[in-house]
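Worked Example 4.2. Consider the chain below.
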Amino acid sequence: MTGSQDRSESSADEDGVNTSRGLRTYYALLITESVSLLGSLVSGLVVSISIFRETGQATPLALVEFFSILPVIVTSGFSGALADRFDRRLLMLVANVGFVLCSSLLLLTFASDAFRLWHLYAFSCASGLFAALQRPAFQASVTMLVPDGLRDKANAWGQLTGPAARVIAPAIAALLFASIGIVGAIALDILTFVAAIVVLFMVRIPTPQATEEGRSLGGSIWRQAFDGFRYLLARPALFFLVAHSSLVTFLVFGALVLGTPYVLARTGSETQFGWVLVALNVGAVTGAIVMGAWGGTKPRVHTVFPGWIIAGVFLVLAGVAQGAVMLAATFFAFMFARPFIDAAGLSILQMKIAPDVQGRVFAAIGQITSMLAALAFLIAGPLADNVLEPARNLPVWSAVGWAVGTTPGSGMGLLLVVSGALTVLISLAFYLVPAIRRVESALPGYVPAAK
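Applying the procedure from the previous section yields the following structure tokens:
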């Protein structure tokens, strides 16, 4: 811990960032983002309930997810370049205004009884575009607001927002669906975005000073859209750290996308499924709280890789679990580990990537993750439905049936086991590479300074 971290919060640290003001800005943005996320989850669930009741099909809801992630895959590189060229606060303002516009138009279609499914796909795609603009700008702003010594805890609290919202959202959605309906729920969602806009008008995010790395990557915005990939490839240890995260995330996404049908098949009960879902999200919330209080190890790689190994073990155990209690316990433990991994990994990137190129690099990482997520979504479902679940009725299944069972859901359980085992093996292999373990000492740390 540096000497600047021992000073009073009211003083400016050596990074050129007023610690107290920077932290207030970060947590103000985090709180408003959390409220906006909760509003979006609630309105999304209310809309999903209505559409499923009307169509009786899951495909429209799956298409909403696809159209939401598509803009991230296509445009993240340009969004990252914009985050490094322009005022990041302004970009977040534009994104939130865009969210208001999309939600307002969707509200009008429902209020006028003119709603069609293609409206939802179009607005989901547009919202995804604004999300692709917002995320690199926010991620790159953290470095300018929170000093390195406090960043692990700040990132851990950031990991708390999604799971906490997912614990609360279903109950609120059910209440609002019965009381104020779709139009009211979307209107409340719009108000949360308006609150975020007000906060963004009130805060200031320092602009990073230009670095040699940033100047060497100069050029047109078309060239800068691919700078994030070039930056990572030029730093092998950092590239392999990101490559590991991408590989194991692909495995985990492929397993967890089957979470709903898997738990329902194992338990045969919507009520028990609900309790398992609650346990999963409570695990993530609890892990974020503990990581926020503790702050992780130094070096941080000793939090990241052991965390993935532990998470992989519990994913294997979730694949062999055949009762609601065991499923809830293993998913709780798996999600408990995730905030430690994500917060420490994000802190490494924020410290080792030059502040004036972070928008481009985070956008590149987001593109990789989104593409692998989409691929996992496309592979996991057909693999489970057409190969693994039918295979449990074949004689050859006895080789694995002793572990994962032969009842409905066993095929999906085998996929969880394989994904978890590969996560453990890949994480061990990367962790044993000295250059990766020494990434924090080998690469220079960057000290953000406001202009």
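The chain has 19 helices and no strands. Residues 14-442 form a domain with the Growth Hormone; Chain: A; fold (CATH 1.20.1250.20). Compare this with Example 4.1 before moving on.
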